[in-house]
Amino acid sequence: MKILFLDHAFHKKTKSNDFFLALIKSNFDSVDVEYIDPESPSEIKALRGHRIHDLVILWQLDYLAPLFLAAGYRTVVVPMYDASANMPYEHWIGMNGASFVNFSRTLHERVIAAGGRSLPVKYYLPPVKEEQLPTFNELRGILWMRRPQDGLTPKFVQSMLGEQLLSLHVHNAPDDGEPRSLNDPQYGASAFQIKESRWSRDSNAYLDALSKANVFIAPRMSEGIGMAMLEAFSRGLLVIANDDAVHSEYVANWINGILFNRDNVGWMCIPLDMARDMAFCGWCGAVSGYQEWLDTRRQIVEFIKDTPEPTSVSGTISPAYATALMDAYVLGGESYRHFLREHVVDWNNRDALQKVASPLRTLIQFETQDRPVLDEEGLFFGTSSRSVCSKFGLKAYDAFSAILANDTMGFSAKLGNINDEAHDTNIVLHCSMLEETQDSWSVLVHVNRECRTRLSLPTLPGEFDIRIPLNWVRGNDLDVILTFLNVRLEDQIADLPQLRFHSVRLEELSV
Amino acid sequence: MECRAFVCDPVCVLPYGHNVVGLKYFSDAIKPFFCEIIPIASRSLPEHISLKYGFEREFDFYYHKYIRLDKLDDLATDIPRYRGHDTMLEAATRDVYNIFAKHHISTNDAVIFPCVDYYGAMGLLAVLRKLNPENAPTVYLRFIGVMENVTSFGGNGLTIISKELSAALSDGYKIKLCAETPAYADHIAEVLGVTVSVVPYPVHAEFDRSERYPGADEKALTRNCANNCVFNVACPGSARLDKGYLSLLEIFTNIRRRDPKQTIKFVTQTLPTSEALPYANYTNQLYATPGVKLLPSSVSEEEMNTLYKQTDLVILPYDPVIYKYRGSAVFMECISRGIPVIALDGSAFCSQIRYYGAGTVVSSIGELIEYVFRYRDMPSKTISTRMLQARHRYSVDSYSAIANWIGL
Fold it and tell me: For the segment A203-247, what is each residue's pLDDT rounded down to a tens digit?
């Protein structure tokens, strides 16, 4: 089986997925690896040209799954909680047909609720021997200051543990930006001794410090796998972490570690014997967890091999569609959700929706009834959250516009507040003709199944408006359909005009 | 002796859980008393399950409001939905009528509901009352304190069934009643003013303690688990809030604190997906506790059998209020298989645990935790001997109870 492993470019640096990639490489004949940076997306080679891979594995790049599924790839997704925790449910429903290897139980539950196939797994690192466990005569902390902007700083540790700590080793190596000055009162602390290290080529100061500490403060608010936390467990340190996944899936509060609430942190009294017992319990969990992980590896491979063929295959994926999806994702939550609702989730696929857990389905179906409101401010034709819904007959979406792809296009919206004399209101579509057209085109416009107007399109490049009178529209829901007619070539197939749709707004006419 | 027995369970609809195996076990248990057994389930039960067990599918499903079917891939999707009490009852009556007509059910036959549900029972009584008592089949109703209470309009089903039953009994219809637990039998007897038998779940599984120690010899069976082996504690059955799901974290974490090396391990199922999301953080804490294995809310019969085979002790921290009259299918599975249980006092099945010596009844979660350690430290042979005796007594009683109910 030939595998394509697509990964986030960030992992070239962190190498946090090396263990998984090694597992894949050792169990499949051929594995090609590509890295993608969602912030500066480039063309995905596998979606163009001749297909050479049997299966694609998307590590953290969940949002690409709809593309590969539509292209007919057997698709495995390995989502990360820290990246996908806030994704809307459409995100998970839109990937139905993919298989998920979930390092987060929370995400596993969401995938299952959305009707997906998921294998929850728990990773552990090889534990040290019992005689190598740290002593607990006093508390010696370690904090890798990866995200000082989140407030996980020595100052924060001081507010939580104070003088209970004899010392704190600060590995001052943020993911973004330069190391922060520990003399800065925004970061520093005075209740305990502080030692500092940074990344260096010739020594691993972090691991050295870890071997001398017995209290580990998790460096991020949430994690995808939590390698640093797992390292601490395997070495028998007491793990203290923010109460969010995946920390909360490894740390049973005050049993094998401690969870804190970053937004409501208070003083924590940790007697030495309790600290020792919790750390020991955490290490025992790492011992049994590592054995279970070794057994789980075979399960993962079989699970991947059993990934089904996707059922709803579109065939070739246009670069424009792929770009639109990626744009919508980068634009953020609402735009991405909007794109998924408009272009990915098939609300008419009863079989697919049948798999979605009932409360979730009810919630989503209720929400789908909300159409965007069309008012004088207007809506767009692209992927942004301020776009019309149920668009069809368009292609090459960007955030705010799309190009005509068919001789019929349409959209839906809810009519905003207009006065009772709706007959004095127009819908105005703002468009641009991208290239000169040799043919004469007219457009026939229906609103709620009634023909409202017919007008001619310009032949020269430039921007123009299509005005549609709203004569006595009943109700607030608008379904608009535009049919493009070539007036000269009745028996011939003419090339569609290169027409870009930008926006639509309401225009009240003065009486 | 009646010739044919129609064993009916309109709530037998999900491919997992108690109803399928319950219908199977009861159909098997009454075989010696009839020429022919015809088990009948819901039409919404997946076909492959009905074929596997030889069930006919004749009943519509009347409980959509309470049991969600629609997330299951292989269930019928065009199940008619009913609004209001009357159409539900009409549907149930129509179904029972069709069964009577199709099989020409007569006075020589028996109609048995091993776990009575409201609409099934009401439909049956409506059809029965259209026959003369001398032409009607003998009806056997076994109450377990669950679906007989459930109506679409929110009323107490048992009260309504009781009135209909009283009328039918005084009109001379042959109706024999039993309940799953002594407490429930006494309660129904008081309500109806008639005697009600106690018929527990039939014994079905092999006593298989030795299977938990493959190749076990006398030495293995006498070893003390506190020394060097894993003692597996399970909470089988569908994880539900009324079955003490929210007590599990207290139990697991307190034991783990005292037993960091995990000589005791836990397995539990998680809440059904439709209920799970609000409890995600709680379940994450179960998941985070070392030595805890979480299973999906529904597992196959084979997976459940495997779980039982690997289990040394079952804990049943059921809500004593909800289970005041109810039995526990899990307890009856355990006593059949030789697995001791620990239950919170107050549930109706606790009297059976005490009477048969099939485990321990405790008054608090703290005491339950203590007893988990006691069982861990108990020689396996001691447990084995006790459970063999418990099973023997239960088996004799269970068989006699069924025979007595059926009327031999």
Answer: 688 999 999 999 999 999 999 999 999 999 999 999 999 999 999
Region of A347 (left: φ > 0; alpha: ψ -120 to 50; beta: rest) is: alpha
Interface of A with B in 5-24 (CB under 8 A): none
The residue of B67, B77, B250, B273 whose CB has the most chain A CBs within 10 angstroms, and thus the best one to mutate to test that interface, is: B273
Contact B349, B181 (CB under 8 A): yes
Q: What is the pLDDT along chain B (408 residues), one digit of tens a residue?
A: 568 999 999 999 988 778 898 899 999 999 989 999 999 999 989 899 999 999 999 999 888 767 766 544 333 333 444 444 457 888 899 999 999 999 999 999 999 999 999 999 999 999 999 999 999 999 999 999 989 988 877 778 899 999 999 999 999 999 999 999 999 999 999 988 899 999 998 887 666 655 554 444 444 444 445 445 799 999 986 678 888 999 999 999 999 999 999 999 999 999 888 788 889 999 999 999 999 999 998 888 888 889 999 999 999 999 999 899 998 989 999 999 999 999 999 999 999 999 999 999 999 999 999 999 999 999 989 999 999 999 999 999 999 999 999 875
CB–CB contact B256 A251 (8 Å) = no
Query: How many beta carbons lie within 10 A of that of residue B317, not counting itself?
Result: 22
Under 8 Å between Cβ of A233 and A282: yes
Cross-sheet strand order for the sheet of B56-59: B56-59, B36-42, B4-8, B110-113, B138-143, B175-179, B197-198
Nearest CA in chain A to B257: A255
Beta pairing, strands A99-102 & A117-120: parallel
The C-alpha angle A235, A241, A243, rounded to 5 degrees, equals: 140
C-alpha R_g of chain B:
22
Each residue's pLDDT tens digit, A103-144: 999 999 999 988 899 999 999 999 999 999 999 999 999 999
Window 85-104 of A, Cβ < 8 Å to B: none
Which residue stretches of B2-46 are H helix? 18-29
Query: Nearest by CB to B71, which of A105, A109, A358?
Result: A358
Contacts of A282 in chain B (CB under 8 A): 290
Q: Chain B residues with CB inside 8 Å of A245's CB?
A: 284
Report residue A298 as tokens. Answer: 């075979």
Which phi and psi (to 5°) does residue A352 adopt? -65, -45
**Torsion angle defined by CA atoms of residues B295, B301, B304 and B310, in that order, rounded to the nearest 10 degrees:** -130
Residues of B in contact with A253 (CB under 8 A): 285
| A-to-B residue pairs, Cβ atoms closer than 8 angstroms | 79
Distance from CA of A354 to the nearest CA of B (A): 6
Point out the residue among A109, A248, A281 whose CB comes nearest to the CB of B290.
A281
Asked if the peptide bond before residue A388 counts as cis, ω within 30 degrees of 0, the response is no
Q: Which among B100, B112, B86 has a CA at the least distance from the CA of B31? A: B112
Amino acid at residue number B219: K
Helix, strand or coil, per DSSP, at residue B266: strand
Q: Which residue has the tokens 């020689």?
A: B379
Q: By the 8 A CB rule, do A397 and A391 touch?
A: no
- Mark yes or no for CB contact A280/B273 under 8 Å: no
ipTM over 0.95: no
DSSP for A368-418? HT-PPEE-TT-EESSSSTTB-EEEESEES--SS-EEE-SSEEEEEEEE---
